[in-house]
Write a structure and sequence with these properties.
814 residues; mainly beta
């Protein structure tokens, strides 16, 4: 045996045989193993309070419902521990994607509220609407988060993050067709430890973080943690009429004070409390509660193109065009539409009411969970995970980023979700591990919206207050067989049954009566139900003590539902689930006496019945826009991922990732844009005409990071770190119509770099750090919203990433 790493008084042993990580770490010392662990799949390791090492360490993961060394797990996993999150200046879940191959995580733009865009290997979701399912499963301490809203997590008091790539239909389960992202919090253990941290930075950034671990009574422990973040915005909002008094656009600000405010600011606070009762090794009960509050300006937007000559969107006769382009980091957003008389062509003279809202985003979320692990007998245990979550959220959006009256919306979500999962884990002899279990969830979201869509050919102003109900029942079983010392098999099945209904409310904002143009939808309910059986089979073989090869076949699905934005009754249609079959091979290696870790995975996915949302639906006829999810076609997705960690000498750590993804549609259903009825067509001319794409899927990504721990003797240590990451161009729109290629719905490729310099005292209980993010001040976009095509809005807006920022922090451990 070889000693891998020492941390907090426990030793993690590493035998060069199957299952090596667990034979040397006692059950009660699992937390020690995680603290000492490296980020999985060749991410670099920084263990808190651990001495420098010239070897890549081990990490224990639970992706297959049992504790395994990462290098023995036949799944492509990237895991990052808390120390590495800090070293990379990562504070939100969106920051993780830079170093995760074939993973895209983006904070949403203003039209999607406080939500996240998530995609793994070309599979995901970018629409917040509760009628739609995420394609990447999001979990905190094994509790599933069912909506994109509220999933932009702060990385508060975490032990580690695991990103599982590829379908996890039998493991993580619900809507994990692309993969799963799992956050694991630090468990209270009564050691009396904790920390406080304060940060000050660019534009009056002020962050406070802290946690405390304590003993309440024998075998009863508690932990409390909290975070506050505040910062001024970086996109300036100006009053166009004030800046250009001769333009004909009325001013709302006094002359000489034309700046209204800044967008993209930060206002975030969260608190989490955990109780743990562990009377003996066979029982562990953890009860956790959390509260999150966000209150800030909407995300900063810039207008990239404007061309709409509909007289109903003009302001005082001033048309909507590129005169309203402000440039980098600024806009002329108004958040108001005046009262007016509709000019036509349909219903001329129809009165339009004035609309105005504060340009703020708010989110208040809370939850409680109970996680119980009980040993029923030798080699037999039961896990129960019970959770309740809820949130209220509000945001307004002026899509046009101009003082004209193109489009305006105000949105409120009220949501609750309950879930229960049971797992029976057992072992038969020394070679077989199994898990059987069940999952149940129920949720309700009420989506209130006030919409003013003046670019439409009819006057569309309405109030919606739509209840959306969804429930899931599932049963699953997984088994692992250690056939020989070198050969293992893993397999599983999962049966899921989903049901969902969506009831439409379409009222007039002035009278409260059914809307005169959309009244046929008022009170109409769409329903969906479906079931699915997923499976997974994996085999791995240890070619040598330092090299593991594996292969797997796995399936997954993303639930179907009801199109949430119809304008005609015939648009109230259900769409079916997405389905995926993934074939994957991989190699995991620790070479040169554990100085080099190379992990390689290659995959080929058959992706069927892809759900895409279209902004033009001519097959339904009638005036008005359209935003209709449909099963649009099938694709072949192939890719390769390489992750490396290098420890050439003590104190020097280098990590790198490279990924490539080829996403090609092999057929498209022509009926989705009314070209012809029929099934999925592979006609090359049709594919060329439609030019289908996968949103938020860059073809190439790479990242590299290096840090060096410099001993200063009794003065402590100094650690400089540099990170850089690149992603190639990616589209933000799914499928254009035959009449518009939407060239603006693309984010160009870019490279972004961060740097950090940290000093730790000799006792390792005090850290002072200086960090710079976006070191070279690269101007690039997080997302774009392109409505320049047949929907009729005639604009493209973009949400720029934060410019270069610096921050100074002090952290005290106790």
């Amino acid at each position: 045996m070889a000693i891998g790493l020492m941390a907090r008084g426990c030793v993690v042993f590493s035998a060069r045989t199957k299952g090596r990580a667990l034979t040397g770490c006692a059950a009660g010392a699992l937390a020690c193993a995680l603290v000492a662990a490296v980020p999985a799949a060749a991410q670099s390791n920084v263990a808190e309070a651990a001495p420098p090492s010239d070897k890549v360490g081990d990490i224990v993961v639970t992706a297959q419902f049992r504790e395994q060394n990462l290098q023995d797990t036949p799944i492509a996993i990237t895991a990052v521990n808390a120390a590495m999150l800090a070293a990379r200046s990562q504070t939100t879940i969106a920051d993780l994607a830079n170093q995760a191959p074939n993973v895209t995580l983006r904070a949403a733009g203003a039209n999607n509220g406080p939500s996240i865009f998530a995609s793994i290997r070309g599979v995901g979701q970018s629409d917040f609407n509760p009628a739609l399912e995420p394609g990447v499963g999001m979990y905190v301490d094994d509790v599933y988060y069912p909506t994109l809203t509220g999933s932009l997590f702060d990385l508060l008091d975490l032990d580690r993050v695991e990103i599982l790539r590829g379908p996890q239909g039998t493991l993580a389960g619900k809507n994990s067709i692309g993969g799963a992202i799992k956050l694991y919090s630090r468990k209270p253990d009564g050691d009396g430890g904790g920390y406080v941290q304060a940060t000050y930075g660019s534009r009056d950034r002020l962050d406070f973080r802290g946690s405390a671990d304590f003993t309440i009574a024998p075998n009863l422990f508690g932990r409390i943690s909290g975070v506050y973040k505040g910062q001024r915005g970086y996109v300036s909002r100006y009053d166009y009429g004030c800046l250009f008094p001769a333009s004909g656009v009325p001013a709302t600000q006094p002359s000489g004070s034309c700046k209204v405010d800044t967008q993209g600011d930060v206002g975030y606070a969260a608190l989490r409390g955990v109780l743990r009762y562990a009377p003996h090794g066979g029982l562990d009960i953890i009860i956790a509660a959390d509260y999150t509050n966000e209150d800030h300006q909407v995300p900063g937007v810039v207008l990239l193109n404007a061309d709409n000559h509909n007289p109903n969107v003009a302001v005082n006769g001033v048309p909507y065009d590129n005169r309203f382009l402000c440039g980098r980091y600024c806009n002329y957003t108004d958040f108001a539409n005046p009262a007016a008389i509709w000019l036509g062509p349909v219903a001329p003279g129809f009165p339009l009411v004035a609309m105005r809202a504060a340009d703020r985003t708010t989110y208040e979320g809370w939850g409680v969970s109970a996680k119980v692990k009980a040993d029923l007998a030798d080699h037999l245990s039961l896990d129960s995970i019970t959770a309740y979550r809820g949130y209220n959220s509000h945001w307004a959006n002026d899509d046009s980023a101009a003082p004209t009256s193109v489009a305006y919306s105000e949105n409120r979500l009220k949501h609750w979700f309950v879930s229960q999962e049971l797992r029976l884990n057992g072992k038969i002899g020394d070679t077989i591990n199994f898990t059987v279990g069940g999952f149940y969830s129920d949720q309700r979201t009420t989506y209130y919206t006030l919409q003013d869509i003046r670019y439409a050919p009819i006057p569309l102003q309405f109030v919606g207050n739509d209840p959306v109900n969804a429930s899931t029942k599932a049963a699953f079983a997984n088994i692992g067989w250690q056939a020989t010392d070198a050969l293992s098999f893993d397999g599983g099945v999962r049966y899921s049954k989903d049901s969902k209904d969506y009831t439409f409310v379409r009222l007039d904002p002035a009278t409260g009566l059914p809307n005169v143009f959309l009244g046929a939808l008022n009170g109409l309910t769409g329903k969906y139900s479906g079931n699915r059986l997923d499976y997974r089979v994996a085999v791995d073989y240890r070619l040598s003590p330092v090299l593991l090869a594996y292969a797997s076949i796995a399936t997954g699905f993303k639930g179907g539902g009801i199109g949430p934005r119809p304008f005609l009754p015939q648009q109230v249609q259900s769409f079916g689930p997405e389905k995926l079959v993934a074939y994957e091979i991989g190699l995991k290696s620790d070479l040169f006496d554990r100085k080099l870790r190379l992990n390689l995975s290659a995959f080929s996915n058959q992706y069927k019945d892809i759900q895409l949302t279209f902004l033009s639906c001519p097959q339904f006829g009638g005036p008005g826009p359209c935003s209709l999810p449909q099963n649009a076609g099938d694709a072949d997705v192939k890719g390769i991922e390489l992750e490396a960690a290098i420890r050439p000498m003590e104190g020097l750590m280098i990590d790198a990732t490279v990924s490539y993804l080829d996403f090609k549609y092999k057929c498209v259903n022509p009926a989705v844009i009314a070209l012809a009825p029929g099934s999925c067509s592979s006609d090359p001319s049709l594919l060329a005409q439609l030019n289908p794409r996968s949103p938020y899927t860059p073809k190439r990504k790479w990242s590299a990071g290096v840090q060096y721990l410099i001993p200063l003797g009794r003065a402590g240590t100094l650690t400089p770190r540099f990170d850089a990451s690149y992603q190639s161009a990616m589209f933000t729109a799914a499928l254009p119509s035959p009449t518009a290629i939407q060239p603006l719905a693309i984010i160009d490729g870019y490279t972004v770099a961060n740097a950090r310099l940290s000093w730790n005292n000799a006792d390792k209980d005090l850290e002072i750090a200086l960090e710079v993010t976006n070191l070279f001040d690269r101007y690039y976009f997080l997302t774009k919203f392109d409505s320049s095509g047949p929907s009729g809005a005639g604009f493209t807006s973009g949400y720029p990433a934060r410019p270069r920022e610096w921050a100074f922090s002090v952290k005290k451990n106790f």
